[in-house]
Write a structure and sequence with these properties.
Number of domains: 2
Shape: elongated
InterPro entries: Gly_rich_dom (IPR049304)
Order of helices and strands: HEEEEEEEEEEEEEEEEEEEEEEEEEEE
Pfam families: Gly_rich_2
Distance between the termini: 46 Å
Largest sheet: 9 strands, antiparallel
Organism: marine metagenome
Helix content: under 10%
Strand content: 25-35%
Oligomer: single chain
Number of helices: 1
Protein name: Glycine-rich domain-containing protein
């Protein structure tokens, strides 16, 4: 008998074995590796990769991962009240009828109604909901020898409640610039209880700028107008004053929604005031856009009036530039900008101020603003397992749109190995919450024994329960693993 002790190398020490095969039968005491934690990590990594790479769904070996970049992974026929939004989540929802009226566009998460034509247009609402509203009045016209027109009033209302009725939306016209005279005041824009005043007129020789949503700039030797009526928060700012130096005649800039118009300066040359800056809003496109800037003031050109004079310019928000011995620039339509003030021409005499820009009304609302939150059943498409599994693993993420969901009560999860004919409950509970990722709550459940019919056609079923206006749950991603 040759004992281990008589051998030069002890075969009981695995580190002494440099080659050869160990029979599989001798490995019966080696435990199976537990990879459930790695599966959860893979699921979370896949959720993030899908969102960044616009991938709809992963079918991995023994795992299916879906972050709902599209609807391809969900079986719509087996699901009920499962509404997917452009923000890539599912929520229980019974659709209502969205409002009508205006020019309708969409961007991520929102539908938008833009009212662009001056005059009255209907906004028809079939059921109660909340909207975000931007209302900009028509800008004031610029004056001759003149002050820049004031911007139309700029007002917003977030989460503005509407009910089933027809609302009249009014979009104000811009005030005209008039030859050799003050400009005309802009017209107000309105929606429901919100009114934004038209912009004040641009002044002219020794005539003050007019009051309005923002005040018009003063002509030479006159004062700028004020923002009127008073609102909270303010709908605009005052126009700049015009210089009293008759040798230079520079005029003030019109007020804007974001700041006052500049006073003119008599520095030989005379420098007209720039229009006040507008204000930003993102309701129409999802990106901030400037509205309602004041028009720049005008100055005379050569002769005895100062050939080096400098006309005022408009800031961001659609206002018109002032003129130097020339007609001024009109403001941009649907911005509520003030028209530029004109400057006296030594050659041609009086000039015409720029027209104010027409106003705008924008109404937006979330995709599910008009309808009823409801219980949801969310069932996946089938994924074929390589072999009939005996256990299932789950990772899901969710957020609360309203209220606070209780895992196990308001959110349940099951899996099936026979394409959804029979189901095994994961039995998720509050203790299965594993923190958050990107603001989404993570729920995991591992090694749940299959109790339903065996097979290889794998599906998950997620339910959101007791849903209402005060409790609404959004499912953002689901991973189903098996072994």
């Amino acid at each position: 008998t040759i004992t281990n002790a008589k051998m030069a190398v002890d075969p009981a020490n695995a580190s002494n074995l440099s080659s050869g095969d160990v029979p599989l039968a001798q490995l019966g005491n080696v435990p199976d590796p537990d990879l459930t934690a790695q599966k959860a990590d893979i699921a979370l990594l896949a959720f993030k990769t899908q969102a960044n790479g616009n991938l709809a769904r992963y079918n991995l070996v023994d795992q299916s991962v879906d972050a709902f970049e599209d609807a391809s992974g969900v079986n719509s026929g087996a699901s009920t009240n499962a509404t997917r939004t452009s923000e890539n989540y599912y929520q229980g929802f019974v659709a209502g009828t969205d409002p009508t009226g205006g020019t309708i566009t969409t961007y991520t998460g929102y539908k938008v109604h833009s009212f662009l034509s001056t005059g009255n247009t209907n906004f028809v609402v079939s059921s109660a909901g909340n909207v975000d509203v931007l209302v900009v009045g028509g800008g004031g016209g610029g004056g001759a020898y003149g002050g820049g027109g004031g911007a139309g009033g700029f007002r917003t209302s977030a989460t503005h409640g509407v009910t089933a009725q027809t609302y009249v939306v009014a979009v104000g016209a811009g005030g005209l610039g008039v030859n050799d005279q003050v400009g005309l005041v802009g017209s107000p824009s309105t929606f429901d209880t919100i009114t934004s005043a038209g912009g004040g007129r641009g002044g002219t020789a020794a005539l003050d700028g007019g009051d309005g949503g923002s005040g018009g700039g003063g002509g030479y030797g006159s004062s700028g107008g004020d923002s009127s009526p008073t609102t909270s928060p303010v709908q605009g700012y005052s126009g700049g004053d015009g210089s009293g130096d008759v040798a230079q005649y520079p005029s003030g800039g019109g007020g804007g929604a974001g700041g006052a118009g500049q006073d003119s300066q008599q520095n030989n040359p005379g420098i007209a005031g720039n229009g006040g800056i507008g204000a930003q809003n993102l309701y129409r496109t999802g990106s901030n856009v400037y509205y309602a800037s004041g028009g720049g003031g005008g100055v005379p050109d050569g002769g005895g009036y100062g050939s080096n004079n400098v006309a005022g310019t408009a800031s961001a928000g659609g206002g018109g530039d002032g003129g130097k011995g020339a007609y001024a620039t009109d403001a941009t339509v649907n911005t509520g900008g003030g028209g530029g003030g004109a400057g006296y021409s030594a050659t041609y005499g009086g000039m015409t101020g720029g027209d104010g820009g027409s106003g705008i009304v924008v109404i937006r609302y979330e995709e599910m603003a008009f309808g009823t939150p409801s219980n949801m059943t969310l069932v996946s498409e089938s994924t074929t397992a390589q072999a009939a599994p005996t256990k299932g693993d789950l990772v899901l993420t969710y957020t609360n749109a309203a209220g606070t969901a209780v895992v196990g009560t308001n959110i349940t999860a099951e899996y099936s190995a026979d394409a959804g004919s029979t189901w095994t409950d994961f039995g998720i509970a509050a203790g299965d919450v594993q923190g958050t990722t990107g603001g989404h709550t993570i729920v995991t459940k591992n090694n749940v024994t299959l109790t339903s019919t065996s097979g290889t056609s794998m599906r998950y079923r997620i339910k959101t329960l007791v849903q209402s206006a005060s409790l609404a749950t959004r499912i953002h991603a689901v991973s189903l693993g098996w072994s």
